[in-house]
Design brief:
Blueprint (H helix, E strand, L loop, with lengths): L20 H6 L7 H20 L1 H32 L5 H52 L10 H44 L1 H31 L1 H14 L5 H6 L3 H53 L5 H44 L20 E9 L9 E9 L3 E5 L6 H8 L7 E6 L2 E2 L5 H5 L2 E4 L10 H6 L9 H10 L3 H5 L21 H15 L3 E5 L7 H14 L4 E5 L11 E6 L2 E6 L1 H7 L2 H11 L12
Parallel strand pairs: 3-8, 3-9, 6-7, 7-8
Antiparallel strand pairs: 1-2, 1-4, 4-5, 9-10
Helix pairs in contact: 2-3, 2-4, 2-5, 3-4, 3-5, 3-10, 4-5, 5-6, 5-10, 6-9, 6-10, 7-9, 14-16, 18-19
Subcellular location: Cell membrane
GO cellular component, one term: plasma membrane
Pfam families: ABC_tran
Length: 637
């Protein structure tokens, strides 16, 4: 559709092609024969993963696979010897006795191969969880170490989504490599027997089987390309599925009549996904069908060749029967190899995404991760010097050239309207984000020159957009300081200061109540109750520097008063940065910083700012008017 025709249909932003997808698609353009160029690297990766996870089981899988494949040659040779004796001249009892040694060898070979197969199965089953744990833990080690700013980038989110699939593919890569080698060794063993009978049979057999193998590889390549192109749709579908089938969204879904809207969104996204799936199904079916037809014609040629050789007396009947058995075994081995090649390459691409993500994620790691930095000393002062921050893909700055200093023992407030940059500035001070310009100093030294973990250990952060951790109430609070064993009296003291103690003891199991309704005996808290738990977590840390971002937005007046009393108790002893829209709670702050559109526009105490008659005075007057009888907000009280 061309713009301006009037035929345009709304397209969700999530469905539009992003610039970073083009590079991903180019990685899928490698021809099928390019698969073989990548196999050595993928196999090395598989062996390295398995070896690191469990050396003993890796050796068992490798050794048993090679020995079991070699047994196939002895099995076919024994089969041929049995047939030679049985088809020979003389009485039947004599022929059976003559074939008995070969039968015994065949039975032993079959038993050994069966035992080796069991050993490989046990080893692979024991290896799988270890490989998966190692790969998944490495992924989470990375995702928990990158800067918060990484999650602002859409490309990072999609990269991580594919990497998650890649960690799952780690064990598949190992298993597919082992299975491919098993098939390959069996194929070599069968090929040796077939060549002994007649070399022409081997060439004919390859003609009969290779088209199927090529088709399987081509189909796998198509599936991988479709997977990469659909990562955004899958994430959008996941979100929609949760929106339509979760308890949290159910009330608003019904109150606002969102059912048809969400179903429409689902139909739009799923329609695009279904169209892609149908296209993929058509292309893969066509590819595999053509391969099957060509392979069938080739196989018919094998049987014609075998009949001609037998009729011409170029091979005996025993060899012909052995050849039939060998051809069937070779078909199974070739089918296994080609299928595993398809799986190995496809799974290997997912694993490449995983490895590539781990490498690319290094650019999001804090700078001191690459150097050894000293531990930060006890907090005395934090200085913000000309600091700015711009979020990815945004035209305006979130924080614009801000300079200020906060010293130990002060209680300071960041105030301003929504979007003024208060929370972003606090996040930079908390070492959660790095400024794009300027510097933040901890005790007179740039914060990135200190060990970041030692800085964060001295900072407590209470966020308005807090996460509801699905653990017990006690654990939720104790997570504020995991450097020392949790103590119940300390937990209850923090809860009391945050006005959360009475809420917790009223739960079915008190402090041991699981705060998640999706688990048995779990309970659900209101927004205000969760805010108390979050505040208690911050107070439990008893940090030198405490940042509280809208800590009372969902609290009732009594709980709010108790919380701000706890904050007031810190004044002069510990440092607190308070972000709030309720200006009555900041009138006793040592310093109030007023931000607007990311810039620091005013600074001073409450009396100074009111006397100045600027933005702060205007905002304070608006709120104060709401508490005055017979006064319209916006008019002088």
């Amino acid at each position: 559709m061309q713009p301006g025709t009037g035929d345009e249909k709304p397209v969700l932003p999530e469905l539009r092609n992003a610039w970073w997808e083009h590079g991903v698609r180019r990685r899928t353009e490698t021809g099928v024969f390019g698969v073989f160029a990548e196999l050595p690297g993928l196999i090395r990766q598989a062996i390295r993963i398995a070896w690191r996870a469990d050396r003993a089981r890796t050796l068992v899988v490798a050794g048993a696979t090679i020995v079991a494949g070699a047994m196939a040659t002895f099995g076919l040779l024994s089969t041929q010897r049995v047939l030679v004796e049985l088809f020979g001249g003389g009485p039947t009892p004599d022929r059976v006795r003559a074939a008995l040694p070969a039968l015994i060898v065949l039975a032993v070979v079959t038993a050994v191969r069966g035992a080796l197969g069991i050993a490989v199965g046990y080893a692979q089953n024991g290896l799988a969880p270890r490989v998966n744990q190692a790969a998944e833990r490495r992924l989470f080690e990375t995702t928990t170490a990158v800067q918060v700013s990484a999650f602002d980038a859409d490309a990072f989110a999609d990269d991580m989504e594919r990497a998650t699939r890649g960690s799952d593919a780690a064990m598949g890569l190992v298993q597919n490599t082992a299975n491919m080698f098993a098939g390959l060794v069996s194929l070599i063993a069968v090929a040796v027997a077939v060549v002994v009978i007649n070399p022409l049979l081997l060439a004919a057999l390859l003609v009969a089987t290779l088209p199927n193998g090529y088709a399987a590889l081509r189909a796998g390549h198509l599936r991988y390309a479709t997977f990469l192109a659909g990562s955004v749709r899958r994430r959008r579908l996941w979100v929609l599925q949760h929106q339509m089938a979760e308890r949290d969204s159910a009330p608003e879904l019904r109150s606002y009549g969102l059912r048809d809207f969400l179903l429409g969104q689902y139909d739009m996204v799923m329609g695009a996904q279904t169209k892609e799936d149908l296209t993929l199904a058509r292309r893969t079916t066509t590819t595999t069908s053509v391969g099957a037809v060509i392979s069938g014609i080739g196989l018919a040629g094998v049987w014609v060749l075998l009949g001609a050789l037998l009729a011409g007396g170029r091979i005996p009947l025993s060899a012909a029967v052995t050849c039939v058995v060998a051809i069937q075994a070779a078909q199974r081995a070739l089918a296994l190899v080609t299928f595993q090649l398809d799986q190995l390459y496809t799974g290997g691409q997912f694993f490449k995404e995983y490895v590539g993500f781990l490498d690319r994620a290094r650019t999001y790691l804090p700078r001191e991760q690459f150097t050894v930095a000293p531990a930060a000393p006890v907090f005395e002062q934090v200085s913000v010097r000309g600091v700015s921050l711009r979020y990815p893909d945004k035209d305006t700055v979130a924080v614009d050239d801000v300079t200020l200093t906060i010293t130990a023992g002060q209680t300071v407030a960041f105030v301003g309207e929504n979007g003024s940059g208060k929370s972003t500035l606090a996040a930079m001070i908390a070492s959660l984000r790095e400024p794009t310009d300027g510097v933040i100093e901890w005790n007179g030294r740039p914060i990135e020159h200190w060990d970041r973990d030692s800085v964060r250990a001295q900072i407590g952060v209470v966020l308005q957009a807090h996460h509801r951790w699905p653990y017990t109430a006690a654990t939720n609070i104790a997570m504020g300081d995991l450097s020392v064993p949790a103590k119940q009296d300390r937990i209850e003291h923090a809860a009391t200061r945050a006005a959360a103690h009475d809420t917790i003891v009223a739960l079915s199991h008190g402090y041991e109540t699981l705060l998640d309704r999706t688990f048995k005996d779990g309970e659900e808290l209101s927004g205000g109750q969760w805010q108390r738990i979050t505040a208690a977590r911050g107070l439990y840390r008893d940090a030198d520097l405490l940042i509280m971002d809208e800590p009372s937005s969902a609290l009732d007046p009594r709980a709010e008063d108790a919380l701000f009393q706890a904050i007031a108790d810190r004044q002069g002893k510990q440092t607190t940065i308070l972000i709030t829209h309720r200006l009555a709670n900041v009138i006793h702050a040592d310093m109030i910083y007023v931000l607007h559109d990311g810039a620091l526009v005013e600074a001073g105490t409450h009396p100074q700012l009111v006397a100045a008659g600027g933005r702060y005075a205007e905002l304070f007057a608006l709120q104060a008017a709401g508490y005055q009888p017979n006064t319209t907000p916006g008019e002088p009280a």
